[in-house]
Design a protein that fits this description.
The complex is a heterodimer. By secondary structure, chain A is mainly α. Chain A is built from 20 helices and no strands. Chain B is α/β, with parallel strands linked by helices. Classes of the chains: A mainly alpha, B alpha/beta. The interface between A and B is large, with 55 and 50 residues.
C-alpha cells in the first residue's frame, strides 16, 4: 500500500518501459507493453491461431451441412449404391449427433450465418444483420433443396461452392477486379465441369449455374458490393448529385415518345421507376438484371400505348434516360459495377437482359456527359437551368444573384432573420420559466441530519489521509 | 426463363429513320406494317434462329439509337458483337455519310466484328430511279475497301432481307466456330468484361 502511494507522481520505473518479453528494447502501451518486433510476432501468432480456428470451424460446419444433406438424401429417396454407401459412412460418424443432424436438415445453415457475421466483425446493425442472415438461410436452404434433385453431382456442387465461399472470406483485402476475377473463374470452372457432366446440355448447365450464382452471391454480397477498395461510393454520390442537378430536364428536351397524360402510360412510367429503384434491394446480380428488364418492359409498354407501334431503340433509350433521371436510383454506379463484376457472363453478354443492361449503362454515360447540345438547348439556356441548382457544375460559372437566385436569396435571409428572433425569444422564455420555478420553490438548505460517516464503526482502521509529499529534484 | 441462348450478337447501326427497326421486324416476323402493330411490344432486342446446313445459329439482334446525340455512347453497344449491320437509306445521301463514321469506329474498337453494309428502302428506288441519292458503285467501292459485304434491301417487299441474315449466319459458322470451338460464351465474357470496366469507369 505504502509502496503504491509512493509511485503516485510521474515516477516511472525504467524497467516498466522495457518490452515485457525482456528483449531489451522499449515497449509501448499500445502494443500491450511489447516492443514493435515482439508485438508483431505475438500478433501474427494470435492471428494465425484465429485463422486456424476459423478453418476448423468452417470445416466442422461443412461436415455438418454435408451430413444434413446426406441424411436428407437418404430420407428423400433411396439413392443409387455409391451415394448410399457414403451416406452409411457418414451416418456412423454422426451417430451420436443424429438428432441435431435431422434438425440441421431443416435449417442447413442456421449456424453458419452467425459465424460468418462474427468473422466480418463490422456488422452494421443487429436488425439488418438478422434480416440478411434470414435471407441467407433461406437461399442456402433453397440451394440444398435444388441440389437434392441432382443427387451425386449436387453434393459435389455444394462442396465446391462452400469451399469457394470460405476461400473468398480470406480474400477480403483484394481489389474489386481481383475479386471479380475469382468469381468469374469459379463460374467458368463450374460451368465447364457441368458441361462435361450434362454432356453439353446448355439449358441444364444454365439452370444449375443460376442457382450457384444465387447461392454464392447472396453469401458474398456484403463483402463485395461497393467494396472499400474502389471509389464506387464516390461515383454513386457524384451520379446522384448530377441527376439531382438535372431535375429540370423535361420529356420534350429528351424527345421522349411517352405521353404521361394517358393514365395507363403514367402507370407504366411509375412502375418502371419503381423497378429501377428496386434493383438496389436485390443481392443476386441476376435478380438485379431482372429488375432492369422489368423496368424496360414497362417502358416498352408505355411507348407502345403512346405511339401505337412497337418501340425501337430510338424510342427506348431516351425514355430509359428519362426514367433514370426521374428515379435517381440509389447506388446506381455501385449496382452497375457489381453486376458487371459478378454476373454470370453468359447472361450479361448476349441475352435480352444483357441488352437492357447495356442500355442502362448507356443512359448513365449519357447523363454524365449531358450538355446543352444533347438536349438541343443553347449553351446559355443550359447554364441558366443548371444555375437554378445551388450546386454549380464544374465549368459552369457561378450563377450571379440575377433573376430567380435573387428572390431565393431574399427568402433565405428572411428565414434566417425569423430563426434568429425565435432563438432570442426562446432564451427569454426559458429564463422566465426558471425564475418562476425558483420563486415557487425557494432553495432552502436543511442542516444535515448527521455526519455522513457517523455509522462507520471502524473508521480508525482506515489509512491516514494522503499528505502531499515533497520530492527533491 | 425465356431467354434463349444466343450464339452471335449482331448490332444494327444507322441514322435515325433509315429503317433499322423495319429491317429487323421483317426478318423476325416476316412482315412490314405501316399501321399499328399487334403483338410485339418492342423491337429493340430480338433473337432468331437461322438454319445453316445441319446446324442452327441463334442471332441476338441489338437495335441501337441512331440519333447523333447518342453517338458517343454507341461504343457501349457494339462491344463483343460478332457482326454489325450498318444501314443507310438509299434515298438519303446524308445517311451514307454517317455510315463512314460507324465503320471507322468499328474498325478501331471492334476489329473482329464483321461489317455488313445495308442500303434500305430499295423498293422506293425500284419504283422511281430518280429518288436514288446513293450510287451503287460508290458504295460497292467503299465496301471493297473496308472488306465488307453490301446488300440493298427492302423491308417492305422483303427483298434481300433474309439473304443478308442468312449470309451473316453462314459467315459466323464458317469463321467463328473454327477459331474457337466448343464453349464460346467464355471468350465473349472476357471481352465484355474488360469492355464494361472501360465504359463505366472511364
Amino acid at each position: 500500500m505504502s509502496q503504491k502511494s509512493e509511485r503516485r507522481g510521474i515516477h516511472v520505473d525504467q524497467s516498466e518501459l522495457l518490452c515485457k518479453k525482456g528483449c531489451g528494447y522499449y515497449g509501448n502501451a499500445a502494443w500491450q507493453g511489447l516492443c514493435s518486433k515482439c508485438w508483431r510476432e505475438e500478433y501474427q501468432r494470435a492471428r494465425q491461431k484465429q485463422i486456424q480456428e476459423d478453418w476448423a470451424l468452417a470445416e466442422k460446419l461443412q461436415r455438418e451441412e454435408e451430413a444434413a444433406y446426406a441424411s436428407s438424401q437418404g430420407a428423400q429417396s433411396q439413392p443409387s449404391l455409391t451415394p448410399f454407401s457414403k451416406f452409411e459412412e457418414k451416418k456412423t460418424n454422426e451417430k451420436t449427433r443424429k438428432v441435431t443432424t435431422v434438425k440441421k436438415f431443416f435449417s442447413p445453415s442456421s449456424r453458419t450465418a452467425p459465424k460468418k457475421e462474427s468473422h466480418e466483425g463490422k456488422t452494421p446493425s443487429p436488425s439488418i444483420t438478422r434480416q440478411s442472415s434470414i435471407e441467407t438461410d433461406r437461399v442456402s436452404r433453397d440451394f440444398v433443396d435444388f441440389l437434392k434433385n441432382l443427387q451425386k453431382p449436387g453434393r459435389e456442387i455444394h462442396k465446391q461452392s462452400r469451399a469457394f465461399i470460405e476461400n473468398m472470406a480470406n480474400k477480403k483485402d483484394l481489389g474489386a477486379d481481383e475479386l471479380s476475377e475469382c468469381v468469374q473463374d469459379f463460374y467458368q470452372n463450374m460451368s465447364d465441369r457441368l458441361m462435361t457432366h450434362f454432356k453439353g446440355s446448355t439449358e441444364r448447365v444454365e439452370r444449375v449455374m443460376d442457382q450457384v450464382e444465387k447461392y454464392i452471391m447472396t453469401r458474398l454480397y456484403k463483402n463485395v458490393f461497393c467494396p472499400e477498395t474502389t471509389d464506387d461510393e464516390k461515383k454513386d454520390l457524384a451520379t446522384q448529385h448530377r441527376i439531382r442537378a438535372l431535375h429540370w430536364v423535361t420529356i420534350q428536351m429528351l424527345c421522349v415518345p411517352v405521353d404521361e397524360e394517358i393514365p395507363e402510360v403514367s402507370d407504366n412510367v411509375v412502375k418502371a421507376i419503381t423497378d429501377v429503384i428496386e434493383m438496389d434491394s436485390k443481392r443476386v446480380p441476376r435478380d438485379k438484371l431482372a429488375c432492369i428488364t422489368r423496368c424496360s418492359k414497362h417502358i416498352f409498354t408505355a411507348i407502345k400505348i403512346t405511339k401505337n407501334e412497337p418501340a425501337s431503340a430510338d424510342d427506348f433509350l431516351p425514355t430509359l434516360i428519362y426514367i433514370v433521371l426521374k428515379a435517381n436510383p440509389p447506388r446506381l454506379q455501385s449496382n452497375i459495377q457489381y453486376i458487371t463484376r459478378f454476373c454470370n457472363p453468359s447472361r450479361l453478354m448476349t441475352g435480352e437482359d444483357g441488352y437492357y443492361f447495356t442500355n442502362l449503362c448507356c443512359a448513365v454515360a449519357f447523363i454524365e456527359k449531358l450538355d446543352a447540345q444533347s438536349l438541343n438547348l443553347s449553351a446559355e439556356d443550359f447554364e441558366r437551368y443548371m444555375g437554378e441548382e445551388p450546386r454549380a457544375e464544374p465549368g459552369v460559372p457561378e450563377p450571379g444573384p440575377a433573376d430567380g437566385a435573387g428572390a431565393r436569396h431574399d427568402r433565405v435571409l428572411e428565414g434566417a432573420r425569423g430563426l434568429q428572433s425565435d432563438l432570442i425569444g426562446w432564451q427569454e422564455s426559458v429564463e422566465r420559466e426558471v425564475r418562476e420555478i425558483l420563486e415557487k420553490y425557494p432553495l432552502e438548505i436543511r442542516p444535515p441530519a448527521s455526519a455522513i460517516d457517523s455509522d462507520n464503526v471502524e473508521n480508525d482502521r482506515l489509512p491516514p489521509p494522503l499528505q502531499p509529499q515533497v520530492f527533491a529534484g | 426463363m425465356s431467354a434463349h441462348r444466343i450464339d452471335a450478337k449482331v448490332v444494327m447501326l444507322g441514322k435515325e429513320s433509315v429503317g433499322k427497326t423495319s429491317l429487323v421486324e421483317r426478318f423476325v416476323h416476316h412482315r412490314f406494317l405501316v399501321g399499328p402493330y399487334q403483338n410485339t411490344i418492342g423491337a429493340a432486342f430480338v433473337a432468331r434462329q437461322v438454319q445453316v446446313g445441319d446446324s442452327m445459329v441463334t442471332l441476338g439482334i441489338w437495335d441501337t439509337a441512331g440519333s447523333e446525340r447518342y453517338e458517343a455512347m454507341s461504343r457501349i453497344y457494339y462491344r463483343g458483337a460478332k457482326a454489325a449491320v450498318v444501314c443507310f437509306d438509299l434515298t438519303d445521301s446524308s445517311s451514307f455519310q454517317r455510315v463512314k463514321f460507324w465503320v471507322k469506329e468499328l474498325q478501331n474498337c471492334e476489329e473482329h466484328c464483321k461489317i455488313y453494309l445495308c442500303g434500305t428502302k430499295n423498293d422506293l428506288v425500284e419504283a422511281d430511279r430518280n429518288v436514288r441519292q446513293v450510287d451503287y458503285h460508290d458504295v460497292q467501292d467503299f465496301a471493297d475497301e473496308i472488306k465488307a459485304q453490301l446488300f440493298e434491301t427492302s423491308s417492305k417487299t422483303g427483298f434481300n432481307v433474309d439473304k443478308l441474315f442468312q449470309k451473316m449466319a453462314e459467315d459466323f459458322l464458317n469463321t467463328d466456330f473454327q477459331v474457337i470451338p466448343g464453349e464460346k460464351g467464355v471468350d465473349l465474357g472476357q471481352k465484355k468484361n474488360t469492355y464494361f470496366y472501360s465504359c463505366c469507369s472511364h
